[in-house]
Amino acid sequence: MQALVVLFLTISIVFLIIRLVPGDPVLMYISESQYSMNSPEQIAQIRHEFGLDKPLYTQYGIWFFNLLKGDLGSSLIKHQPVKSILADAFPRTLHLGVVSFLFSTIIGLTIGVICAIRRGKPIDTVLTILANIGITMPIFWAGIMLIYIFGLWLHWLPTHGYTPPFPIQNFWVSTKQAILPVFCLSLFPMAALVRQTRSAMLEVIKQNYIQTAWSKGLNERMVIFRHALKNGILPIVTLLGIQLGLIIGGSVIIETVFAIPGMGKLSVDALLTRDYAIVQGVILLIGIFVVLMNLV
């Protein structure tokens, strides 16, 4: 029930805010020269066509009623149903998000465990410092630096665009294009996971049953993975659910930096053109995903 309330408030606030943003969407629909050529009656007809001449509460009621029927409306600029536009963009965002989630989870857990079992050693100090840097580093700046180093200077990796991984002949091109954005998307979640894993594991390995396992002569791998990690991973699972939602929601910056035509870039372009229907659809889809991940 709380999740439904959160979604309702999210889409309602977005509906209101996007209409308070300065600018006339009709000017985005027709060029300035066409605007001057059209009569006031023609301009009014365009507003009527898109329902922009109605009071705000009426617009909201119509949109919400259509939403309950599964109709997200049509794009003001693209002249296509919002559902088809989102269906085209969402798989790209999901692809990068899932790969980033898996990469950050595997690397973050591994480094966190290493830091915990080697506490106070040089490797713990170095990896902890890197994790702290990863948490504080702005991902848009990291993306620009990676583009400069690996794209413009070394010419190792492409700097923009997206290619689907399937059919299989596209897989290598897709992988090369995904390396930089996936690393940027993984940077903060991976660093946060390292810190959380290290903290959780340090709490667990102080427990009596872990000391007993050591005293029984069990090897390090068995003590860590069979006994310590099972209990230490419980708070980490909660963090993983939150991070999966953030990776999808945080794609706005990365997709804009790397010119990836996914949900993030779609929302930025729609905001700049005052395309109300697309902005509302993107926020609704991201909101549902984030809320569901937290709920699960």
Calculate the terminal CA-CA distance, rounded to whole Å.
Answer: 14 Å
Q: Low-confidence segments, ≥5 residues, pLDDT <50?
A: none
What summary fits the major beta sheet? none
- The structure class reads mainly alpha
Q: Would you list the SSEs in sequence order as H and E? A: HHHHHHHHHHHHHHH
Fraction of helical residues: over 70%
Number of strands: 0
Determine the strand fraction and express it as a percent band. Answer: under 5%
| Global outline | elongated
Number of helices: 15
Mean pLDDT: 86
Rg for CA atoms = 24 Å
Question: How would you describe this protein?
Answer:
30% of the residues are buried. Helix 9 runs antiparallel to helix 12 and helix 10 runs antiparallel to helix 11. Helix content is 77%, strand content 0%.
Can you describe this structure in just a few lines?
The protein has 296 residues and is an all-alpha fold. Helix content is 77%, strand content 0%. 30% of the residues are buried.
SSE layout:
Blueprint: H1 2-20, H2 25-29, H3 32-37, H4 40-49, H5 56-68, H6 82-117, H7 122-136, H8 139-153, H9 171-204, H10 208-215, H11 220-232, H12 234-249, H13 251-257, H14 263-272, H15 276-295
